[in-house]
Amino acid sequence: MLKDKASSAIVAVKDLTRARAFYGTTLGLEVDREEGDQVVMFRTGATRMGVYVSEFAGSNQANAVVWGVGDDLEAIVADLAAKGVVFEHYDMPDVTFSGGIHHAGDFRMVWLKDPDGNILHLNSGT
């Protein structure tokens, strides 16, 4: 039924102006369209990501959005770190952590939070 249909991420935020700056300037996403003062749609690869105002922003304790960035991971991490982004460190069996990046064999993973505490995940997958 849905296997051939596109999907997109939606992220709840409390302050749309602050979120627009973070997702647009810090993460480098391009605004696709705005729907009043409640929703901003960003382009991210071949998909769109919606950011909307909600009183429940940041209450999810799991990944809100995941990007598979392949071999660009280290360059992206360096760019984000230069913009002041702080990366999360999670203790996991058989996973090492250095320079903001978790290593599980050849697979690399990064977690960061947006200004509302939503967990964003980047990894070396594609």
Written overview of the protein:
- With 126 residues, this protein is an alpha+beta fold.
- The chain is 17% helix and 39% strand.
- It has 2 helices and 9 strands; from the N terminus they run βαββββαββββ.
- The chain has helices at 16-26, 73-82; strands at 9-13, 30-35, 39-44, 47-53, 63-68, 96-98, 101-104, 107-113, 119-123.
- A 5-stranded mixed β-sheet has the order 5-9-8-7-6, with helices on one face.
- The longest helix is centred in the N-terminal third of the chain and has 11 residues, at 16-26.
- The two termini are 25 Å apart.
- The model has no long low-confidence stretch (mean pLDDT 95).
Strand order of the largest sheet: 5-9-8-7-6
| Beta-strand segment tally | 9
**In which range does the helix fraction lie?**
10-25%
Instruction: Name the overall outline.
Output: globular
Q: Characterize the largest beta sheet: strand count, sense, and whether it forms a barrel.
A: 5 strands, mixed
Helix/strand/pairing category: alpha+beta
C-alpha Rg (nearest Å): 15 Å
Please count the helical segments.
2
> What is the distance, rounded to the nearest whole angstrom, between the alpha carbons of the first and last residues?
25 Å
Query: Which residues form runs of ≥5 with pLDDT under 50?
Result: none
| Strand coverage percent | 35-45%
